[in-house]
């Protein structure tokens, strides 16, 4: 029996994995059950219950695969969908990959080889991947899919609060609060067991859900449990400005807190002077009466008014915009005005999405960062990390470019010619996916590490079969910044290697400096040293302490330190020790509606699937429940385009189009359609989404673009 | 390039702010004759109502260090030959001059109001006006507001909110310019219900003044309203004094072309309330802001001015206790081919009207329905988004939608009970039939309740129902026993 955590989202529900018993259905296999743990409180959703299926997916890859060039393939790069794959030995694969990397590097420089990582990788792998890029490949070109989920919240939190830890408090703190506001989060589908923590606020009528859809989470506000603000897509920022306007105008702010702990109030007060409630109502569709009511309720819930606390939480719905960083900033401004951040009761947090979305962004996968959330441009940070790595600081390359920029430069003149992909199905999860496909196809060398033939892997020159979740040891950092142990419960299939082994083998072949352990514990101990003194300091969090059951949240600078469940109680890790309110202005979606594209498209999740669906679409029970993409469409819009029932509809933007089945529902605004993003092929909604990015974070505007919608047979 | 902006109101400020960001190489001086930094004039009645304080009115400080806002710098003269603006503190040379002098409050020409206003009589144009009115409410128990346009109604509501007994003199009716008569009567009912005495059908004959102080308002019908506080909200007039003195063409406002440029001097532009474009003078902030943005872009990028088309007028009342929104076309201005759909609920002081033209919503008027107003205003002028039957926009738009049956007895078998694990009522019934007759056993078999636990109560209810209908489950009993459509074996 092995204690570990779920392979999927950032809630990291605690699980027990046991070998199958006498029952025919499970003999020789494993059984996964939830176990008591603060974040999931003993619960687990359908994804978690069926996770053991991942260990026996029929198309598991267990041998390195090399593309067999199809005869007469076109010009340009060698990657692409032509031809099939042949099995090769690890040595043949690694030798050839190393030789080609070397040749490309000699021709075009080290930056011609790029790396794309993932927020699902363990801390150990994420750390080693960043090190592999900098020391073995010597490239500055590394970024990861966390750019698509957490980068705007991260940028805003760093800017305002001095540090980015998704939730700077334990999730269980929510239970006591009078109010919880979810800015664009659909918890009930993305991490269902987390809904338990909303119970207290719901009992007191204090749950506020901001979403253009009446999502499963929005329904939790029914029957007096709270309010749903069904805003126009892309107007989250204006709504936050409007709430702050009312808080400041009606004298609802925590003046003592602002005076003692916050800079920048004057600029922010001015910036919201232009957003009076009636103007906000006309832009967002949220009535001024509701806006004032929510602002007053939040104030009453705040500690300075004697309330039991309020939490303002952002999700991808408010963050995945070209002004996402500013939107989160506006929410943080609101939390600061109410005196919530660092208060005993209340706070601001971002709900991390991916399993290790938190740890994945701390250890060097980001284009501009080194382990410990250190900036790669900071000489002291470079020196510290170089000392741990045993290299001269000068050997560490400078900052690279964020994900969208990196992907669109692939195979272009001056851009990377080779790409390593780890823990990401980048073809399905990137915006404007058809462009990404062309860029991947233009590469001379695409190496994908995965355990199933994902859509991205099928474009590769090499697919390297790697271990998954229950087959490996390591750590994950959950959405609260608490470090969790992932443990091996089953032996990986023969022929499969861990990515740590892949890095070590390639590093040796590329004559990389430094040491390349393949033992997760050793890599983690190196990570601890590398992070020591950084913003995300893991130095005191050892496997031994974790295995002994300690609840350890970073920063934890030494082994005697108890860790830091709650940040900001006394000070902010900014140069002044005070939080910074930053004035922001509303710009609106990058792509306006127009006559040919009069409808907003928003994207999101369904309960049954995770991310690009590469894993969950291979689990029969999940895939049977949600086998293909659908379009949620209001009856009024459905009638306009002549839908009669579950017809297929085509959605078209400037960039591409998809076909999916209509699901007529009054839960969505009549000017908006919703499509989940877990599907490939004709239902791959990212063929339609906009790759415009936030100027601060590089986050693409997944959440809103202008589309046309038609009946497919029309 | 040196740009001088005369007028530091909302439009002058917006222009300077935009230009400073778009063209960091440009020097901008903004001359304002008030001693305050640029502030949000639209909120002045909110200041009177006490729903915002003075600090909350200040507009953002322009980002660029090359934009200087000079409060208290009254422009005395424009010398177009020397391209300079003369102030008491010195001259400001320009390459481009932008007039954003705004408008003055109109003072009706009746005895008692000639020349300087008597003490106790106020317009509502500037911060000082609003502060004076607010101060006056400390002593005044009554007030008369003359003029029942949006400003007058907002001022009346604000004073009423402060506990003052208010009479609103509305010679042509309340909000008569913005609303059709039947709708205006609903708005009037709203005002009356707040305790505002609305007087219509008669104008003001004179304002009584004793010892330099207002003591009452005499109406055309002979009545006298005794009061020490009179608020004049009788419209505004574009401020063209400076422009006219400089020899620029003026009519109602400073005459400019579609490019916002003055007819006789290409170095001079006018925007906002003072400008008279070929479309006329506006007097609203939204078109003024649009002009400011368009002109800033044009100057920064050396491109032609592109003004967005703003169809019809828009009015959103900001008045404590009242909700009135009107945008675009209304019944009296609709074309014969338009469809006008209205919903009247005068007992609840509610009236909603919308105008559909082809497949586009071109007009919305909502009195007493802020929720619908907010929703409909996001649908205005969006071609292709109108329901086939415009009535649908009003139906089901207020209040919660249909609630699914949450009764364990009546819910259909296909209803999902446990979302986390995709378990339907039918699944639970089958598990019951297979011998899982407790909540724990059902959870073990179907996984219901093992996610977020939110369905536990419902599963308990289903167990109770099953126990009642089927106390001793056995493999023979299900068919036809229960009233739901559980599939039979």
CATH class of the largest domain in chain B: Alpha Beta
C-alpha Rg of chain A (nearest Å):
24 Å
Q: What is the molecular shape of chain A?
A: globular
Number of individual domains of chain B = 4
Protein name (chain A): Molybdopterin-dependent oxidoreductase
Domain 4Fe-4S Mo/W bis-MGD-type (chain A): 1-59
Pfam family, one (chain A): Molydop_binding
Region (Disordered) (chain A): 62-84
Strand and helix map with partners:
The complex is a heterodimer of chains A (714) and B (489).
Chain A: E1 2-5, E2 14-19, E3 30-34, H1 46-49, E4 65-67, E5 85-87, H2 90-108, E6 113-117, H3 123-137, E7 142-144, H4 151-161, E8 179-183, H5 187-190, H6 199-203, E9 207-210, H7 216-219, E10 226-229, H8 236-249, H9 255-261, E11 262-263, H10 265-273, H11 277-284, H12 288-301, E12 310-314, H13 316-319, H14 324-337, E13 346-350, E14 369-370, E15 374-375, H15 379-389, H16 403-409, E16 418-422, H17 426-429, H18 433-441, E17 445-450, E18 462-465, E19 474-477, E20 483-486, H19 499-509, H20 520-531, H21 543-547, E21 579-580, E22 599-604, H22 620-625, E23 630-633, H23 635-640, E24 648-652, E25 657-664, E26 672-676, E27 705-711
Helix pairs in contact in A: 2-19, 3-19, 3-20, 4-14, 8-10, 8-11, 8-12, 8-14, 11-12, 15-20
Chain B: E1 2-6, H1 10-22, E2 27-32, H2 44-49, E3 67-71, E4 75-79, E5 84-87, E6 90-93, E7 96-99, E8 103-105, E9 121-123, H3 127-136, E10 142-146, H4 150-161, E11 165-170, H5 181-193, E12 197-200, E13 204-210, E14 213-219, E15 224-226, E16 230-232, E17 236-238, H6 241-245, E18 254-255, E19 268-270, E20 275-276, H7 285-301, E21 314-316, E22 324-328, E23 339-345, E24 350-357, E25 360-367, H8 370-377, E26 416-418, E27 423-424, H9 425-433, H10 439-446, H11 456-469
Parallel strand pairs in B: 1-2, 1-7, 2-3, 7-19, 9-16, 10-11, 10-16, 11-12, 18-20
Antiparallel strand pairs in B: 4-5, 5-6, 8-17, 13-14, 14-15, 21-22, 22-25, 23-24, 24-25, 26-27
Helix pairs in contact in B: 1-7, 9-11
Domain 4Fe-4S Mo/W bis-MGD-type (chain A): 1-59
Pfam family, one (chain A): Molybdopterin
InterPro entries (chain A): Asp_de-COase-like_dom_sf, MoPterin_dinucl-bd_dom, Mopterin_OxRdtase, Mopterin_OxRdtase_4Fe-4S_dom, Prok_molybdopt-oxidoreductase
């Amino acid at each position: 029996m092995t204690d570990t955590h779920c392979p999927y989202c950032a809630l990291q529900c605690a699980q027990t994995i046991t070998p199958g018993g006498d029952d025919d259905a499970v003999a020789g296999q494993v059984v996964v059950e939830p176990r008591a743990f603060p974040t999931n409180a003993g619960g687990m959703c359908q994804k978690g219950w069926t996770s053991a299926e991942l260990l026996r997916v029929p198309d598991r890859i267990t041998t390195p695969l090399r593309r067999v060039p199809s005869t007469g393939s076109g010009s340009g790069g060698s990657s692409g969908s032509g031809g099939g794959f042949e099995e090769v030995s690890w040595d043949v694969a690694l030798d050839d990959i190393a030789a080609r990397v070397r040749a490309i590097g000699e021709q075009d420089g080290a930056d011609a080889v790029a790396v794309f990582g993932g927020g699902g990788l363990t801390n150990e792998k994420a750390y080693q991947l960043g090190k592999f890029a900098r020391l073995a490949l010597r490239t500055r070109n590394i970024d990861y899919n966390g750019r698509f989920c957490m980068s705007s919240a991260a940028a805003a939190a760093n800017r305002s609060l001095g540090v980015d830890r998704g939730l700077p408090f334990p999730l269980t703190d929510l239970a006591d609060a009078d109010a919880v506001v979810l800015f664009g989060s659909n918890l009930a589908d993305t991490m269902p067991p987390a809904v338990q923590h909303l119970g207290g606020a719901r009992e007191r009528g204090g749950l506020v859900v901001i979403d253009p859809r009446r999502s499963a989470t929005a329904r939790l506000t029914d029957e007096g449990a709270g309010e749903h603000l069904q805003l126009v897509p892309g107007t989250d920022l204006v709504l936050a400005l409007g709430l702050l306007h009312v808080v400041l105008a009606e004298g609802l702010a925590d003046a003592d807190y602002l005076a003692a702990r916050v800079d920048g109030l004057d600029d922010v007060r001015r910036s919201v002077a232009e957003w009076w409630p009636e103007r906000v109502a006309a832009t967002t569709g949220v009535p001024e009466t509701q806006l004032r009511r929510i602002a007053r309720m939040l104030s009453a819930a705040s500690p300075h008014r004697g309330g039991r606390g309020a939490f303002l939480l952002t999700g991808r719905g408010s963050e995945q915009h070209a002004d996402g960083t500013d939107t989160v900033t506006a929410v943080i401004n609101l939390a600061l005005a109410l005196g919530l951040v660092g208060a005993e009761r209340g706070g601001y947090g971002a709900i991390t999405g991916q399993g290790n979305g938190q740890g994945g962004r701390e250890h060097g996968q980001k284009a501009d960062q080194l382990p410990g959330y250190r900036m790669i441009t900071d000489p002291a940070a470079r020196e510290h990390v170089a000392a741990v790595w045993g290299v001269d600081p000068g050997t560490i390359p400078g900052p690279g470019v964020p994900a969208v920029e990196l992907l669109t430069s692939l195979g272009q003149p001056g851009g990377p010619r080779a790409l390593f992909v780890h823990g990401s199905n980048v073809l399905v999860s990137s915006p404007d996916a058809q462009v990404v496909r062309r860029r991947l196809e233009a590469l001379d060398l695409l190496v994908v590490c995965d355990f199933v033939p994902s859509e991205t892997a099928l474009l590769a020159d090499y697919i390297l079969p790697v271990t998954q979740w229950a087959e490996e040891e390591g750590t994950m950092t959950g959405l609260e910044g608490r470090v969790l142990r992932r443990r091996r419960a089953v032996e990986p299939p023969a022929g499969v290697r861990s990515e740590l082994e892949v890095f070590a083998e390639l590093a040796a072949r590329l004559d990389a400096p430094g040491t390349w352990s393949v033992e997760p514990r050793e890599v983690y101990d190196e990570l601890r040293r590398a992070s020591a003194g950084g913003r995300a300091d893991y130095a005191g969090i050892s496997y031994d302490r974790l295995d002994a059951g300690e609840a350890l949240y970073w920063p934890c600078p030494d082994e005697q330190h108890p860790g830091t469940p709650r940040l900001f109680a006394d000070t902010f890790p900014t140069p002044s020790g005070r939080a910074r309110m930053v004035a922001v202005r509303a710009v609106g979606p990058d792509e306006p509606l127009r006559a040919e594209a009069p409808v907003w498209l928003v994207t999101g999740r369904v309960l049954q699937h995770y991310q690009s669906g590469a894993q969950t679409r291979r689990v029969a029970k999940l895939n049977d429940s949600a086998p293909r993409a659908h379009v949620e469409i209001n009856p009024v819009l459905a009638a306009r385009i002549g839908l009669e029932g579950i017809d297929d509809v085509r959605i078209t933007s400037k960039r591409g189009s998809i076909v999916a089945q209509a699901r007529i529902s009054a839960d969505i605004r009549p000017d908006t359609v919703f499509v989940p993003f877990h599907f490939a092929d004709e239902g791959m909604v990212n063929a339609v989404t906009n790759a415009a990015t936030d100027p601060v974070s590089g986050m693409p505007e997944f959440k809103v673009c202008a589309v046309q919608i038609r009946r497919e047979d029309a | 390039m040196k740009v001088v902006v005369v007028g530091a109101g909302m439009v002058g400020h917006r222009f300077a702010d935009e230009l400073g960001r778009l063209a960091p190489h440009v020097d901008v001086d903004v001359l304002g004759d008030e001693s305050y930094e640029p502030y949000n004039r639209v909120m002045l009645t909110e200041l009177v109502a006490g729903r915002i304080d003075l600090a909350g009115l200040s507009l953002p400080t322009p980002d660029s260090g090359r934009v200087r806002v000079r409060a208290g710098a009254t422009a005395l003269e424009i010398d177009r030959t020397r391209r300079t603006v003369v102030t008491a503190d010195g001259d400001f040379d320009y390459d481009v001059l932008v007039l954003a002098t705004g408008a003055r409050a109109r003072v009706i020409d009746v005895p008692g109001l000639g020349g300087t206003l008597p003490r106790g009589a106020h317009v509502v144009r500037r911060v000082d006006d609003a502060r004076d009115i607010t101060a006056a409410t400390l002593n005044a128990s009554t007030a008369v507001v003359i003029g029942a346009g949006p400003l007058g109604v907002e001022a009346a509501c604000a004073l009423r909110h402060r506990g003052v007994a208010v009479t609103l003199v509305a010679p042509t009716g309340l909000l008569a310019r913005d609303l059709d008569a039947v709708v205006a009567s609903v708005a009037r009912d709203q005002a009356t219900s707040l305790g505002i005495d609305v007087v219509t059908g008669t104008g003001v004959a004179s304002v009584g003044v004793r010892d330099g102080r207002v003591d009452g308002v005499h109406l055309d019908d002979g009545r006298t309203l005794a009061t020490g506080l009179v608020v004049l909200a009788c419209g505004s007039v574009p401020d063209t004094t400076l422009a006219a003195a400089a020899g620029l063409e003026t009519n109602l406002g400073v005459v400019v072309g579609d490019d916002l440029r003055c007819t006789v001097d290409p170095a001079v532009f006018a925007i906002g309330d003072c400008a008279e474009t070929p479309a006329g003078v506006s007097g609203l902030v939204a078109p003024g802001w649009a002009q400011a943005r368009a002109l800033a872009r044009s100057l920064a990028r050396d491109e032609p001015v592109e003004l967005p088309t703003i169809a019809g007028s828009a009015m959103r009342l900001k008045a404590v206790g009242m909700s009135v929104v009107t945008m675009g076309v209304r019944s009296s201005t609709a074309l014969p081919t338009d469809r006008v759909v209205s919903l009247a609920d005068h007992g609840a002081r509610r009236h909603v009207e919308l105008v559909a033209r082809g497949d586009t919503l071109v007009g919305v008027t909502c009195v007493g329905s802020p929720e619908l107003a907010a929703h409909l205003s996001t649908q205005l002028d969006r071609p292709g988004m109108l329901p086939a039957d415009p009535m649908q926009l009003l139906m089901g738009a207020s209040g919660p939608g249909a609630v699914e049956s949450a009764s364990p007895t009546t819910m259909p078998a296909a209803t999902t009970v446990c979302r986390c694990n995709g378990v339907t009522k039918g699944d639970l019934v089958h598990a019951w039939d297979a011998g899982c007759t407790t909540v724990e056993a059902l959870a073990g078999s179907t996984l219901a309740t093992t996610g977020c636990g939110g369905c536990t109560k419902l599963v308990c209810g289903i167990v109770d129902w099953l126990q009642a209908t089927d106390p001793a489950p056995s493999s023979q009993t299900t068919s036809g026993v229960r009233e739901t459509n559980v599939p039979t074996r």
